[in-house]
Batch of 4 targets.
Target 1
Amino acid sequence: MATKSEAKRMLILKAATEWIVEHAFHNLTLEAVAKKAGISKGGLLYHFPSKEDLLVGLTQSIFEEFTVLLDEKAEKDPIKKGKWSRAYIELSRWDLENNSKLNVAVMAQSLLNPEASKTMVKSYEYTQDRLLNDGIDPVIGAIIRLTIDGLYYSQLLDIAPIEKELKNETFEKLYEMTK
């Protein structure tokens, strides 16, 4: 069970994610996040002394949650061969369709110095290791990861995002490649 401090921190991170999803990222302020969380700015500053600290915490939280969910989903797959790839495909598909949390994290991370990106790099390395050692051809694992990266970045940067039907067909094709 989370301590009171951990619960408050999670509330702040959830509020920040929701605010960014609902508004333009560049308009993010500590005041707006505090208001969304229903706490004082001082309460927010206790947990995150600066906007940069909040963005680092947000990025860490999102990538850590993605990794935990990836592990849980893969462990539930009764077919060992390709289970990590299928878990990654399903989780990424859900994320892109619902709230694009990873897009938010990537945006937040892009504003920070390279030292602060360790969580993101570690998460990508972890995921890539699982995909390349998934019992399927490692080239297929790389294709899956890079295709999903492309879908995220296309949506994030609004660079010719593909239509929903084609996106769904792309995910289905990637899923087929895991068998």
Target 2
Amino acid sequence: MSDKTKKQQILDTALSLFVHQGFYATSTASIAKAAGVATGTLFHHFSSKEALMNQLFLNIKQGFADGIQAQMLHSGDFKRDTEHLWQAAIQWALEHPLRQSFFQQYSLSPAVSESIRQQAMHETLGFLSTMLQQGQVLGLLAKHPLHLMLANCHGQYLASAQFFIENPEKWGDAAHREASFTMMWRSIAK
């Protein structure tokens, strides 16, 4: 197994264990054992369990960002494009339930350092800030502080994604899909 493969195996195993057992209940030894690598190999790639958590958090956020950015529309209709992006984000959650469970558990957890959360929000997901600012310039979104709008949208996303994961049949219902967007939109619209 190559170094890159071992590192990814460690990350994949840590994801599963952190979601199912919790960060504090999961030891580096248990991650290494479940990944089929020596504990020394884990520490070769990650200096600590916290470093492993931070890398996992950034990797998942990047995968999320890449996934939804690939679905972005540029139709010229800001609200329509925003709704399409919102639905792409929920669809990502449904297609990646383990990763979404990780978000649910660790988005605000002290197990992820504040600097890593900020990096994920402002660098990895920076296009969302740009989009919100564009909506403000167009006069479609309220002139609320940007960081507060991002936090609100994030919270609404987590709540909606969890609802649809628990009720996947509702995602097929246009009224539920549209309502999830409408509730978020009304919280930021002018």
Target 3
Amino acid sequence: MDNDRIKGAAKEIKGSIKEAAGKVTGRRETEAEGKVEKATGTVQRKVGEAKDKLREELDKDN
């Protein structure tokens, strides 16, 4: 499993928590930061998934 998958998933979780905390406390800045962090984590996780898929395909060919 690619490191980007793991780190991205962790960012997604952290961002979700931050977003929820911002909503609960009414702090729009914290909520927005959480949304950005969650989106960044999603992209990073997807990059890791793509790397894993590419490795699998290359291993099939060998």
Target 4
Amino acid sequence: MNDDSRDFRRHLRQTMSLPAVMIWSRLKGRHADTPRFRREHPIGPYFADFYCAKAALVIEIDGASHGQGNRPARDEVRDAWMQARGLEIVRILAADVLHDPDDIVEGMLNLAKARIRERRGG
């Protein structure tokens, strides 16, 4: 990672949206037996809101702007690029996170565990 992308990642981590902060605050203190997620993780030319390497899982938190302008088309291109590299992308509405962040995090962890089992062939 070059200095520019490192600086940009730092900026993203410092300016996370409220729904992303709510998720991160619940993920960062997890026990060793739960899947590990990284926040604002670089993947090629993109940054994933949350990424679980063992599960090859990308979680994106979509606010209202994701439905405006050229954003849906850009998200499609980004998702296709990641899927071509074997990653699963799950998009979660920010409003759903605000409504029940604990349920969202539990779902993320369950999906990651299932993907890890699947990737191990069991």
